[in-house]
Amino acid sequence: MLAAALLALAAYVGIVSDLEHAIAQDQLHRTLSDQLAAGTAPVSEGDVDDVLLPNGAPVAQLTIPQIGLDETVVEGTDSSNLAHGPGHRRDTSLPGQAGVSVVMGRRAAFGGPFARLEELSPGSRFTVVTGQGKQTFEVIGVRYAGDAAPAPTKAGESRLILETARGPAFVPHGVVRVDAELVTETQPRGARYTTFPTLPPSDKELASDTSRAWALVFALQLLVVVAVGAVWTYRRIGPRQAWIAFVPAGLLAFLVVADQAVRLLPNLL
Prior knowledge:
CATH topology of the largest domain: Sortase, Chain: A
Order of helices and strands: HEEHEEEEEEHH
CATH architecture of the largest domain: Beta Barrel
Number of strands: 8
Distance between the termini: 26 Å
CATH superfamily of the largest domain: Sortase
Radius of gyration: 21 Å
Low-confidence stretches: none
Number of helices: 4
Shape: elongated
CATH class of the largest domain: Mainly Beta
């Protein structure tokens, strides 16, 4: 049972999570493109009707040709949001707006969009498209724990910080940050209702979303029910019927468990 669970977890992380990420990105890109065309893409923490943006809403298109990245950025940075793509930290400005913007992304699971982030070097340029147009940024440095942060932004300046896990896949030993400054016109900062003190702990770097632990418990209960049903069918009806009925159900149950287990891992993995 344990071996099967570990196999399902490996299959989910290596195959299913990438597929889930690709499907989510396709849907998010379509939604953002429609909003940009209609002039309704968000420019603050609220939508055009001033309703707070839900977690997972698309807010920007991040394109970094040097590392083959073209991803739709979502609002929110907890584990579930970063399963769909890079996430914008809610308490910071949107990319291109006055102030500092923070965008986090996974290093390995769910497509690992930020896997090659450390390959960027000072002088590299990339773009972000938001409801305020196309913004161009230039990398000013890559830093790790203990490195000095750039000087604070001045009035009218805009900086974007890209963050992901540092170290081998699924064995992080810190956070890598890429600092980039806006080289095009700075946009006005939209209203922000979330502040760093009110930011949920699950939205911070390398945080886990323990609020989803209950879902893992239910998934494990489902797995137990399937296992009991398989044993009962094997003994009372026959092995052939048990295989036919419960192999698909067992695989599905294992994948559900793996899905919930992965979402409890740190958000930048």
